[in-house]
UniProtKB/TrEMBL annotation:
Enzymatic class: transferase
Region: Disordered, residue numbers: 1-33, 297-353
Protein name from the UniProt record: choline-phosphate cytidylyltransferase
Transmembrane segments: 196-218
Length: 353
């Protein structure tokens, strides 16, 4: 069967030339038609390693021999041949054929491919080159001969590179390694133990493991929930502490405002008292200076003149007026004193005379 309906092939076979210093011959590619390259294998559990090898065969990524136009034929052995010479496969033959048909590098699939290639097979399928990796594969003789020994001798073998880290055997090894998990996975999805080929004891064992895993999962979930609860409690405690600190800050702020008002009132009171004391001191100083400037006169009977006392009382005990009024009063009193002095002098002269 083929993905592509035929190819324009001619009946002219490719020529072969002898390699220098070797008994093998190197076939030269045809130039008047697409080069027909053949690759074969089992292709069980088709993966990207298979796809890469087929890509190399399609592109003929071989040094000194890159074909501009290639028609890739892929041979796949049936179940009978594969189970006889290689072993049990996971996928049936038809499944493996169908996987190859859906690979974009494949032009044609040859089912029931032979295990060992001969000249007749190459001629019947007009194959120019055979592409495969260089690892030797045992033939049907049991003598350990390479199945590609014939095409290597006739110069029609093209080596491809294997993809490291991926193979059908590796995939099967992963399944075998985690066998219990895959069995429990399928049991969870509705497969019966008869479908999986598992005995009753094994099924009970797996179910016990499943319950253990479930218990471990629930325990871990419970621990996580407990940790979350403790974390929430810590967050709540921190929030309460922050709230208390905010209340404390508010109280301190109110207390500071009250103290500030009291401090300002006390300062104003002290300032007012100081201003009053300063005014009193200034008034006393003025009184002392005035007392020193105005001489006190004795009356004839030995008593002080009441005029001076009356002057002082009128000057210092009345309400403070404007500066101009005080100056006028001061000068008026000075004139009165001068007149009194003149009268006393006249009286004194009259007595003396």
């Amino acid at each position: 069967m083929s993905n592509v309906t035929g190819d324009p092939t001619g009946d002219l076979p490719s020529t072969a030339v002898a390699l220098p210093g070797s008994t093998a011959v190197q076939s030269s590619p045809p130039t008047d038609r697409p080069v027909r390259v053949y690759a074969d294998g089992i292709y069980d559990l088709f993966h990207f390693g298979h796809a890469r090898s087929l890509e190399q065969a399609k592109k003929s990524s071989v040094p000194l021999c890159k074909f501009p136009n290639t028609y890739l034929l892929v041979g796949c052995c049936n179940d009978e041949t594969t189970h006889k010479y290689k072993g049990r496969t996971v996928m049936a033959a038809e499944e493996r054929y169908e996987s190859l048909r859906h690979c974009k590098w494949v032009d044609e699939v040859i089912p029931d491919a032979p295990w060992v290639i001969n000249q007749e097979f190459l001629d019947n399928n007009r194959i120019d080159y055979v592409a495969h990796d260089s690892l030797p594969y045992a033939d049907t003789s049991g003598a350990g001969k390479d199945v590609y020994e014939f095409v290597k001798k006739v110069g029609r073998f093209k080596e491809t590179m294997r993809t490291e880290g991926i193979s059908t055997s590796d995939i099967i090894m992963r399944i075998v390694k985690d066998y219990n998990q895959y069995v429990m996975r399928n049991l969870d999805r509705g497969y019966s133990r008869e479908d999986l080929g598992v005995s009753f004891v094994k099924a009970c064992h797996l179910l016990l493991l499943l319950f253990c895993y479930l218990f471990i999962f629930l325990e871990k979930r419970l621990r996580v929930n407990m940790r979350l609860k403790k974390l929430q409690e810590r967050v709540k405690e921190q929030q309460e502490k922050v709230g208390e600190k905010i209340q404390t800050v508010k109280m301190l702020r109110n207390e500071w405002v009250e103290n500030a008002d009291r401090w300002v009132a006390g300062f104003l009171e002290i300032f007012e008292e100081g201003c009053h004391k300063m005014g009193t001191a200034i008034r006393d100083s003025i009184q002392e200076r005035l007392i020193k400037q105005i001489p006190r006169k004795k009356l004839e009977n030995g008593q002080d003149d009441d005029t001076d006392d009356q002057f002082y009382e009128e000057y210092f005990d009345h309400d403070m007026g404007s500066d101009e009024d005080e100056d006028e009063k001061y000068y008026d009193e000075e004139e009165e004193l001068e007149e009194e002095k003149k009268e006393n002098a006249v009286k004194t002269d009259a007595k003396d005379k």
